[in-house]
Amino acid sequence: MRHDDLRYVYAVCRPLAAPLAADLTGVGGVPPRQLSHAGLIALVGPVPERDFAEDALRRHLEDLDWLSETARAHQRVIDALTSVTCPLPLRLATVFRDDSGVRAMLEEGEERFHRVLERIDGRVEWGVKVYLEKEEEQAPPQQAPADAPRPSKPGSGRDYLRRRRSQRTAQEESWQQAEAFSRRLHERLAQRADASRLHAPQNPELAGTPGRNVLNAAYLVPRADSEEFVEMVDRTKDEDQGTSRLRVELTGPWAAYSFTGDEEERPV
């Protein structure tokens, strides 16, 4: 480690009961190390000041390739840590000048860190999303034979408006059915979780996922109950959802990203 390297902090956790994989590497391909203070562990790694000082970092965060590579390395460490404990992940590119700065962070947040770690101990986060897919575009009509009868005269403007109104009504009904299904699903899953959180629906253009996001929720579930929770979500895919255009997606298990702030102590 160079004398001018900064300290990149991945997460805060309790002392590990099992070692991390020996070949684990983080940002910059460097293995993370443990820094302990007041019964807490910060998982840290050295990063060059030329890339992570404030001005340089601001420029890098506009570089999608650099950002993607850093995010993958960050998540690789969090995933490895989640396999042996229940960490409190910190934001991407949380950096301090030296070890003393990391210890000062642990000391300042000691009470909150212990409180959150107690809340998420033995638990993981599962994400559930529901999408309302668009109606498939109809295939273009085949070219009619030369001797086929000529089509009838196009409908009137009144007929066109009537069809448009009927389409809007069908879309509204599909959306209402999707919302009702999502509400029932969330209530059912929340009852089987220790905590739940509703996130804002994802923008389909930004997410790059087909369909309109109806439900975007996270659930804090004991590890021991995770298999049952997953089976419950899978069963919903076979239920009558009111519309065949609904798609349910399950992701996880993750570190408890959605449940590491004090605001999660309030009911959702």
Report on this model:
By secondary structure, this protein is of the alpha+beta class. The protein has helices spanning 49-52, 54-60, 64-82, 99-108, 110-120, 157-191, 204-207, 226-236, and strands at 6-13, 33-37, 40-47, 88-89, 95-96, 123-132, 195-198, 212-222, 246-254. Strands 1, 2, 3, 4 and 5 form a five-stranded antiparallel sheet that branches. It starts with 5 loop residues before the first strand and ends in a 14-residue tail after the last strand. The longest helix is centred in the middle third of the chain and has 35 residues, at 157-191.
Features:
single chain; 268 residues; alpha+beta; 5-stranded antiparallel beta sheet; 4-stranded antiparallel beta sheet; 8 helices
Short description:
By secondary structure, the protein is of the alpha+beta class. Helix content is 38%, strand content 22%. The two termini are 44 Å apart.
Residue fraction in strands: 15-25%
Sheet with most strands: 5 strands, antiparallel
Q: What's the overall geometry?
A: globular
Proportion of helical residues:
25-40%
Low-confidence segments: 137-141, 264-268
Order of helices and strands: EEEHHHEEHHEHEHEHE
Mean pLDDT: 85
Q: Could you tell me the number of beta strands?
A: 9
